[in-house]
Amino acid sequence: MASARFLTLKSIHGTSTHTHSLRPRIQISGKVRAFCALMSPTSTAVFYENHGPPDTVTKIIQLPSVEIKANDVCVKMLASPINPSDINRIEGVYPVRPPLPAVGGYEGAGVVHSVGSAVQALSPGDLVMVSPPSPGTWQTHVVKDKSLWHKLHKDTPVEYAATVTINPLTALRMLEDFVDLKTGDAIVQNGATSMVGQCVIQLAKLRGIHTINIIRDRSGSDEATEKLKKLGADEVFTESQLDVRNVKSLLGNVPEPALGFNCVGGNAASLVLKFLRQGGTMVTYGGMAKKPVIVSTSSFIFKELSLTGFYLQNWLTSDKNEECREMLDYLLGLIREGKLKYNMELAPFSEFHTALDKSLGKLGSQPKQVIKF
What we know:
Helix content is 26%, strand content 26%. By secondary structure, the chain is of the alpha/beta class. The two termini are 33 Å apart. InterPro entries: ADH-like_C (IPR013149), ADH-like_N (IPR013154), ER (IPR020843), GroES-like_sf (IPR011032), Mito_Enoyl-ACP_Reductase (IPR051034), NAD(P)-bd_dom_sf (IPR036291).
């Protein structure tokens, strides 16, 4: 006989109460005792059966209820972002992707709907986030093992809870894991308008670390520069502004950076390398331009530069997962205090495909799209 706890909701049109369970049940000492397997509600989901263009292969469908096992937690999702890696997974070009058919999304937050009989640390009504990130968050109800949910402070803004892992945590880990930065040091990065880039600027500023930021040449670059400086950026350059013999002559009072971040590749990566000081390190965590990183022989021999890569999931699924959760709590604390923020646009689930078009760049430059369920 299965036992579970449920989130019980009052009807807005009457005095009766309802629970999202369709099984015969009786109330016993504050718990619901069911006569059959505990099942989740049905779930509306973004589903794809084949890899390909996301705007072509995805569709909204209704998924049937699934069994909630003893260690499972069923969460009513509240928000989930559309990340570039989500798009790449659907396209079939991302190295780590779920088997087909699949539900999109990898990150998100929601409220606990019901829990399995062996779950003690979470209760219906708790605000939680998916941690570590895992597939299938673009749907109204998600069932996962209790180890994949992290309980949050009740005052955490949902849109930040849904987006804090993949991008802000990447920024924090890269600042802390590769070079022992001191107050007064500097870093350089391309892709500075990205969510990671915005977080790097603010987290570095809190530590007294200077940032040199490279953005693309495009319409609105002056406005983008102003926004980054308001976040705390010391220097912001478009790629064309760096078409000079000695880029370091543009630094003014900012010291040569010891650490660089590359999420673009191609020429933008080369510009990061040009700024680095003797013995500096460049960390690559993305390749939005889909072009290789090219390094001159002299950079290796005479500047003794180090190149390395960073993939957040390796940290989240290793023995450092608990440490990462502590860092997430730190980041969410900064968010609640107003010390960390980034641009997002909230889109209702009913307008998913419009938000997807924005994420694909069909409607020009757009902020991060976050689906609200």
